[in-house]
């Protein structure tokens, strides 16, 4: 009897699958990937499905939907799924797919590399091994595996452009780490499904991410409203600070009154926005602005995009952000 786990690999391109060309590195399914998979087949039964072949800078909402649909459609008969992906937007993809696949009933693990598999010093083989181990763990959820660490897909952030420890789990412990004991899982982070697996891939692209800067013209909010945006994520200062001496508060109020969902997070990578601390925060809350708390920017963006995609009105969006769906926020 074959005791090896059945793992599906969904490929999307990225550095891990890139080869050098006249214009630099470009994604390309090559024999190098086949070589690495041949070694992994000693431990797993592997099926490969090519979803797309793109630099991750070119992956957006439509591609997230394609990935989520591929996971949901092909999951039957597999113990886990690995998704090879470029690193630049992997945190966005992993977060979006988390919300699109509520109660997913098997491990779905994103991974990639900072050096192509064709490079002898590539970090790709190690990342693939970690991802496959997590996919075979039997612990459902959407994860990101990199540099011998496994994190929730909705907590991962790319923090280095070229270093091998490219991703960190922000405001949440790792779901697992690789040590001399193998893959060690953190039971406090892992969540059991609370219902039947579902696919809800609809998502709105009418969300804008705005990073506040000192002296910024508050007319930007009226411009975003006129452009038809339905949601705005504001990366504010510190705990959620906004310039109350300018017209920013009035501009934000007008957006909220027009039915635009406004979520405030912090520019600080770690810790949480907290609109309960300062006077400006209380003013924002009284206007109907939504707290992002300790969510990553990627999670706040994709959660808002997903909620709007489900047809939620501002009241339901506000209620959505009061719920922890997949470990993305500490309430």
Give a quick precis of the structure.
By secondary structure, the chain is of the alpha/beta class.
Set out the fold topology.
Elements: E1 5-13, E2 18-21, E3 24-27, H1 31-40, E4 44-54, H2 61-74, E5 80-84, H3 90-100, E6 107-111, H4 124-135, E7 141-146, E8 149-152, E9 156-158, E10 167-169, E11 176-179, E12 182-185, E13 207-211, H5 219-226, E14 231-236, H6 248-257, E15 261-266, H7 279-287, E16 290-291, H8 297-309, H9 314-320
Parallel strand pairs: 1-4, 1-5, 5-6, 6-7, 13-14, 14-15, 15-16
Antiparallel strand pairs: 2-3, 7-8, 8-11, 9-10, 11-12
Helix pairs in contact: 2-3, 3-8, 5-6
Q: Could you characterize what this model shows?
A:
The chain is of the alpha/beta class and 331 residues long. It is 28% helix and 24% strand. The protein is built from 9 helices and 16 strands. It has helices spanning 31-40, 61-74, 90-100, 124-135, 219-226, 248-257, 279-287, 297-309, 314-320; strands spanning 5-13, 18-21, 24-27, 44-54, 80-84, 107-111, 141-146, 149-152, 156-158, 167-169, 176-179, 182-185, 207-211, 231-236, 261-266, 290-291. The strands form 4 sheets. Strands 4-1-5-6-7-8-11-12 form an 8-stranded mixed sheet, with helices on both faces. Strands 13-14-15-16 form a 4-stranded parallel sheet, sandwiched between helices. A two-stranded antiparallel ribbon has the order 2-3. Strand 2 and strand 3 form a beta hairpin. Helix 5 (219-226) runs parallel beside helix 6. The radius of gyration is 20 Å and the shape is elongated. The mean pLDDT is 91.
Q: SSE order, as H and E?
A: EEEHEHEHEHEEEEEEEHEHEHEHH
Biggest sheet strand line-up: 4-1-5-6-7-8-11-12
Mean pLDDT value: 91
Low-confidence stretches: none
Percent helix: 25-40%
